[in-house]
Design goal:
The chain is of the alpha/beta class. The protein has two domains: about 170 residues, 3-Layer(aba) Sandwich (Rossmann fold), CATH 3.40.50; about 160 residues, Rossmann fold, CATH 3.40.50.1400. It has eleven helices and eight strands. The strands form two sheets. Strands 2-1-3-4 form a four-stranded parallel β-sheet, sandwiched between helices. Helix 1 packs across helix 2, helix 6 crosses helix 8 and helix 9 packs parallel to helix 10. It starts with a strand and ends with a helix.
Length: about 350
């Protein structure tokens, strides 16, 4: 019997500092998130970051927390329920970090008689700190507890035509009535070294402004290339004019080089240097709104843009449980089920 396991990032159990600390501990100690030797990671996370960051993060979570709980979890559950309502194939939801474990997700499916699972990391783009860690963890759990289960994976969908169409419709609908002079595609940031590490050729990726444009097998696992391709496809679908949009990367830590330009720098630069004061911001690296979109972009980003001289600002919500997005997922599931 077939079943589907949807997997997203995860969330603290509550906005209490202790729960945020527990969540951050698991998340940041993942060797694919902070990929430094264990002893260095242990000292950095346990000895420095977890002493101060949980309290700051807890305050940020309090700004965006819903009555039902974590927005990421609530939205993901709503999406899962809608997908389930459109198919007889059992659907389960899990998170890479937190109490909604991948093991529980597998178990839920097994209890329904499932022995053939489609694993769907809910990340459009491949990155070692998102897609890869989900697939590796799922493989470990399957081998240890569910060895009789067959699994298939959807590794990424950054340029899948139906997904691009659904995302473009979401953007178009949210832009209706908003007079903008610039659209910023803000992607989640990752360290540059992750790009080099996931390059199977070990020679193509140089982050030099041209490697993303040259055909290569490296693009199958290159987060930067895939982000740029998503922008290109959406631009094409929406018919955006050159000069009215740009890319940036949000979130960074430590002193190592991260993908640029940085989103928070662009919030200041675009109104000051380009004179554009009416901006819409899209976050295509996320399928569901979360701390990074609701607090960093919708709240802090708006404040930064206005401080830089902006006058009009709009955060475009993620796909969330958008019906078009639900339909796309159900189509992928149906195609997988028919193919097997």
């Amino acid at each position: 019997m077939k079943g589907v396991l949807l997997i997203n990032l995860g969330s603290p159990e509550s906005t209490e500092t202790k729960d945020v600390r527990t969540y951050l501990d698991e998340f940041l100690m993942d060797e694919r998130v902070i990929d430094i030797p264990y002893w260095k990671r242990f000292l950095l996370i346990k000895g420095i970051i977890l002493r101060s960051r949980p309290q700051k993060s807890a305050e940020a979570y309090k700004k965006i927390w819903w009555k039902e709980g974590s927005p990421l979890v609530v939205i993901s559950e709503r999406f899962t329920n809608k997908v389930q309502n459109n198919t007889e194939i059992p659907i389960s939801l899990a998170m890479r970090y937190g109490s909604m474990t991948i093991k529980k997700g597998f178990q839920e499916l097994v209890d329904k008689g499932v022995d053939d699972v489609l694993i769907v990391p809910l990340y459009p783009h491949f990155a070692m700190s998102s897609t890869e860690t989900v697939l590796v963890k799922a493989a470990e759990i399957r081998k240890q507890f569910f060895s009789n289960i067959k699994t298939t994976e959807i590794p990424h969908f950054f340029n899948e035509p139906r997904y691009i169409k659904a995302m473009s419709n979401n953007i178009k609908n949210n832009l209706e009535g908003f007079d903008y002079d610039h659209i910023l595609f803000s992607y989640h940031g990752i360290p540059e070294r992750h790009i080099f590490k996931t390059d199977p050729t070990q020679s193509h990726c140089k982050i030099d402004g041209s490697c993303c444009e040259k055909a290569s097998k490296a693009h199958d696992t290159c987060y930067r290339h895939q982000c740029f391709e998503t922008t290109k496809e959406i631009v094409k679908e929406l018919g955006l004019k050159e000069g009215t949009y740009s890319n940036s990367f949000q979130s960074r830590m430590l002193k190592n080089p991260w993908l640029q330009p940085f989103t928070d720098f662009e919030f200041d630069r675009i109104p000051k240097e380009e004179g554009k004061r009416k901006m819409a911001v899209i976050t295509p690296a996320f399928v569901a709104d979360c701390l990074e979109t609701l607090e960093e972009i919708a709240m802090e980003g708006k404040e930064q843009f206005f401080e830089g001289g902006g006058t009009d600002y709009k955060h475009i919500p993620c796909m969330n449980d958008n019906d078009d997005w639900v339909q796309v997922m159900n189509t992928w599931i149906d195609e997988w089920a028919e193919k097997e």
